[in-house]
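Q: I'm writing a short methods note and want an example of a predicted protein-small molecule complex. Could you take the sequence and the SMILES for zinc ion and return the bound structure as C-alpha cells? Please keep the output block clean; save any remarks for afterwards.
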Amino acid sequence: MICKFHSNLLCFLIFNLLAFKPITAQTIYGKDKYIEYSLGKLPIIISVPHGGNLAPNDIPDRTCNNPTTVTDANTIDLAKKIDSVFIVRTGCKPHVILCNLKRTKLDANRNLTNGTCGHPIAVNAWNEFHKFIDTARFIVNQSYPNQAFYFDLHGHGNPIQRVELGYLLYDDELELDDETLNTSQYIENSSIQNLAKVNKNNFSHAQLLRGSFSFGSFLAKRSFPAVPSQSIPRPGINTNYFSGGYNTVNHTCYNPMLDINGVQVECNFQKLRDTPSNRILFALAFVESVIEYMQVHFGLNLSDCNKITNVENHNHRPPIIYPTIVGCNGILNIMNIKNAYKITVYDQAGQLVFQNEDFKDQIQLPEMMVPGIYGLKMEMEGVMYNFRIVVLD
Ligand SMILES: [Zn+2]
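A: Understood, no commentary inside the block.
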C-alpha cells in the first residue's frame, strides 16, 4: 500500500526493514520500564525526553513552577524508526534513551526540581534517564574518543513547518553575521564548540551552523527544511524558535566536563511526524544526513562500525570478553585465551576492586561489586588488554 504512494527508495527501505534479520540488541530498563535504554555500537546517542505516554496514578501531575506538559507526539516511534534505518544502513545501532513517562508526570529535559516537582518516583526516573545518557557516552568514548555526536530529539508545535536545530544560540544571536558568530564569545556558548575548534576541513563555527555542509543543509537537501541552514540561516525573531534545553546544555561540550558535540532537534509535525510513512521518510533523511555529517566533519565512516573494537591491534587474535554488561554476581566469558592471564578490575575512581590469576574461560564477578562502570585490564603473554564492563543491579 505505502509503496504505491511513495518513492522506490522508500519501498526499498521498507523491504529492507522487513527483511532485515535483527541484530542482537540489548535494552536496559529503569524501574517499571519508565525509562528505556537500547544500547548501540555507533558513536551516535539519541535521547527522547517528551514522547512518553505512561501516566501512572502514583506519580501526581506536575504543577510546580508553571510547567509545560504537552507531549512531543510520535517522537518515540520516530526514534525507533531512525534506530532501524541506522541498522539497515550501517549494520549497527545508535544508543537510544527513551522516557516512556508522560510529560505531565516527568519532564526529562528540565532540571531535577522542575522536571519532577520533587516526587520520589519521578526523581528516580529522572536520574535513570540522565545516567543512561552518561553510560552511553562512556561506552561510545571507548571506541570513538572525541568522535561522538548527541541528538536530543523533540517535536515542536510552531506554525512554520521546518526542523529547528538548537545549538544553544538564541534567535537574536543567529541574526548576527558569520564573523561575529566565529568569535570565541559565541563559539563558547555553542553545543558544537569542540567541533568548531577541530574539524576535518577547518570549517568555521558559522559554516558548521549554516553553511552548505551544516547538518541543517544536509536535512534540507533531502527535502526537510531546517533552521539554521544555508537556505534558512536564521530563525527570525518572535518565531518561538527552540535554541536547545537542559539536555543539550548538560550532555554536550557546552558542559566543560564533556567532549561530545550535539544538538537539539525539534521536528515539525506536518509531513514529518504525522504519519508512519512520513516518519520513515524523515528517518531515512536523518540517518543519511548523520552519515554524511560524520564522514565530512569527523572523517568517520559509520559503516565501519563492526570493525571497531576496544582492543588494540596485535599480531595474534586478541582476547574477547562478553557480555560487557552484566548483572551483579554475573559471569564474564573470555575467548581467545592463549595462556595464563592476570585480570585486574578497578572502579571509575581507579580503586582496585579485585585481581585474579587464572587460565579459565569464565570469570565469576565477586558479590561485593556494586552497579557501575568498571575498567578491566587483562595481562596475557606480556601484553595488556583494556576493557570496560558495566555492572547492573
Ligand atoms: Zn520537547
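A: Remarks, as requested: The pocket of zinc ion is lined by residues 50, 72, 154 (CB under 6 Å). The first helix runs from residue 2 to 5.
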